[in-house]
């Protein structure tokens, strides 16, 4: 039996086998979401809501770091999977190694620049004098581990390309558990405050990073480290193909800044804390869409590379049906459980809780459309159509949100802030439908 026959990506997937293949990525992203919001929950419960606000103030920097990793991971995964599908294994390994090294160097560069301009960055993000020391303590530690953050994003994506999605799941579980345990130790037991929250998260980053490095050094899969060949065309293709994911993260950085500015003007620090609850809850609830898209993208790229049109269309059809069903379930959960989610972050007798609870009643409608938008962006990335993918991400995460954030609060106040994301998702859904119909034959 040849390697092409034994490659997990070459399977003739049906609905349940495809969901089973993508499930580790979905569970992995869910655990990543859990340990991402752990900081905010511990910060709000065991420090104060000002710490919660501070985490969101510096969030745009973290968006930039994750965006670099996601850009290389999504774009690079498509390049590597396509070459594996075309039976160019040696070239795929070289490209893979080059992409990982590039990610590590980017992380070191971000750390250096961040340390030099730390104070200017925090003030530029809109931190008040009250939030300034919180922001400084949290961001300094995050910058120190920037390379580890980028590499764990790369590995989590490329485990799937290597046909080992279960390994990414196991490491995510360990990382999530470690983050929760260290948050409790650093924040509750050692009383380290927001520095403990940042350190706990950073240790979580390093578990997939160190384990992934060891795994790919051992050569136990077809995809492993080798002596890389410098190929700027591959890096350029990876970056351009994964541009939509970078656009998404950069857009999140800008829109988070705009959200913070709007809420700081309307409701001061409590408003920023409330929007933090909504944003982090959104990330947690969309992890199912993101994980499913990550898990199925290599399958799409592989069939695209092997020119198996019948299987390609079958996989895409299954994906859209699954995303539609999950979108309805997530919407209903958010609509009816939103007040309970808000209560996890902040006590039910607080102003922050009341703001967040009211926000969920409007914000929940975004989940009816976000799943299809997220998958469509990943689909076009997997098909090496970075331009369409970037356009969908741009409209979803920046273009329309920015317009709505600048306009709606002037007429609707706080309700306008909450309505910005549902409006943007609905508008992008129309664009997604047009693009899918236009490229249906491909």
What is the count of DSSP helices, taking H or I runs of 4+ residues?
17
Rg: 21 Å
Helix content: over 70%
Order of SSEs: HHHHHHHHHHHHHHHHH
| Chain-averaged pLDDT | 84
Distance between the termini: 31 Å
Number of strands: 0
Name the shape in a single word.
Answer: globular
Q: What class, by secondary structure content? A: mainly alpha
Overall structural domain count? 1
Binned strand content: under 5%
What does the main sheet amount to? Answer: none
- Low-confidence runs (pLDDT<50, min 5 residues)? 1-5
Describe the structure.
With 442 residues, the protein is mainly alpha-helical. It has one domain (13-438). The chain has 17 helices and no strands. Helix 2 (15-46) runs antiparallel to helix 12 (243-305) and helix 3 crosses helix 7 (132-144). The longest helix is centred in the middle third of the chain and has 63 residues, at 243-305.
């Amino acid at each position: 039996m040849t390697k092409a026959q034994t490659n997990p990506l070459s399977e003739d997937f049906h609905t349940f086998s495809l969901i089973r293949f993508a499930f580790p990525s979905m569970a992995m992203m869910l655990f990543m979401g859990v340990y991402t919001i752990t900081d905010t929950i511990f910060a709000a419960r065991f420090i104060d809501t000002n710490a919660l606000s501070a985490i969101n103030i510096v969030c745009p920097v973290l968006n930039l770091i994750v965006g670099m990793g996601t850009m290389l991971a999504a774009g690079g995964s498509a390049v590597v999977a396509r070459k594996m599908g075309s039976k160019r294994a040696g070239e795929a390994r070289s490209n893979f190694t080059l992409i990982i090294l590039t990610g590590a160097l980017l992380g070191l560069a971000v750390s250096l620049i961040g340390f030099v301009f730390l104070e200017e960055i925090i003030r530029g993000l809109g931190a008040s004098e009250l939030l300034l020391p919180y922001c400084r303590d949290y961001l300094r530690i995050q910058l120190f581990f920037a390379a580890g953050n980028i590499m764990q994003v790369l590995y989590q994506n490329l485990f799937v390309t290597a046909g080992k999605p279960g390994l990414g799941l196991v490491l995510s579980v360990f990382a999530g558990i470690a983050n929760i345990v260290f948050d409790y130790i650093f924040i509750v037991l050692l009383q380290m405050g927001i520095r403990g929250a940042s350190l706990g998260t950073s240790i979580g980053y390093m578990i997939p990073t160190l384990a992934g490095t060891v795994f790919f050094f051992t050569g136990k899969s077809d995809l492993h480290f080798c002596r890389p060949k410098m190929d700027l065309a591959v890096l350029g293709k990876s970056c351009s193909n994964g541009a939509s994911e970078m656009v998404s993260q950069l857009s999140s950085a800008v829109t988070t800044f705009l959200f913070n500015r709007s809420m700081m003007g309307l409701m001061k620090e409590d408003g920023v804390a409330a929007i933090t609850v909504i944003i982090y809850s959104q990330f947690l609830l969309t992890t199912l869409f993101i994980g499913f898209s990550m898990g199925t993208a290599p399958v799409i790229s592989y069939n695209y590379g092997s020119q198996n049109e019948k299987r390609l269309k079958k996989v895409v059809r299954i994906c859209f049906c699954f995303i539609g069903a999950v979108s309805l379930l997530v919407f209903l959960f958010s609509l009816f459980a939103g007040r309970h989610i808000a209560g996890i972050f902040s006590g039910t007798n607080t102003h922050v809780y009341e703001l967040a609870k009211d926000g969920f009643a409007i914000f929940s409608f975004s989940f009816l459309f976000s799943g299809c938008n997220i998958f469509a962006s990943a689909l076009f990335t997997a098909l090496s159509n970075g331009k369409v993918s970037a356009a969908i991400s741009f409209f979803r995460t920046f273009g329309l949100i920015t317009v709505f954030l600048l306009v709606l609060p002037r007429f609707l106040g706080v309700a306008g802030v909450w309505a910005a994301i549902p409006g943007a998702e609905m508008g992008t859904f129309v664009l997604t439908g047009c693009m899918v119909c236009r490229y249906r034959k491909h």
